[in-house]
Write a structure and sequence with these properties.
- 22% of the residues are buried.
- The chain is globular.
- β1 (30-37) and β2 form a beta hairpin.
- α1 packs antiparallel against α2 (22-29) and α2 (22-29) runs antiparallel to α3.
- The chain starts with a helix and ends in a 5-residue tail after the last strand.
- It has one domain (3-117): Nuclear Transport Factor 2, Chain: A (Roll), CATH 3.10.450.
- Helix content is 28%, strand content 48%.
- Strands 2-1-6-5-4-3 form a six-stranded mixed β-sheet.
- With 122 residues, it is an alpha+beta fold.
- InterPro entries: DUF4440 (IPR027843), NTF2-like_dom_sf (IPR032710).
Length: 122
Amino acid sequence: MSLHELLRLEHRGWRSLCDGTGSDVYDELLTDDGVMVLAHGAVLDRAAALASLRDAPVWDEYLIEHPRVVPVGADAAALVYLGTASRTGAPPFAAWMTSVYVRRWGSWGLSLYQQTPVADTV
């Protein structure tokens, strides 16, 4: 999977987090066994991740920087990048993010999403 393809999927997810459609978009993107590991220590399976996205406040803006692809196999790839985002009434958020996509039955799905927070100096 190319960097362009991975970024297209990642931007689709981020745009949905900005417009309030996150649970719908991630319902399509997350694999049945998908997991999200969040910066505050939560590990969410598919059902918990989708539930949390239904009630999540929207992000006002986001930025993906320093993206790179890590091949995982013929039908899997990881996108690693520095993600920053902000929302009204909350401090800016910055983390190194990893999204692992797998191809199953001809389409790509998000299998694992992980965040590692970075210092406020980023």
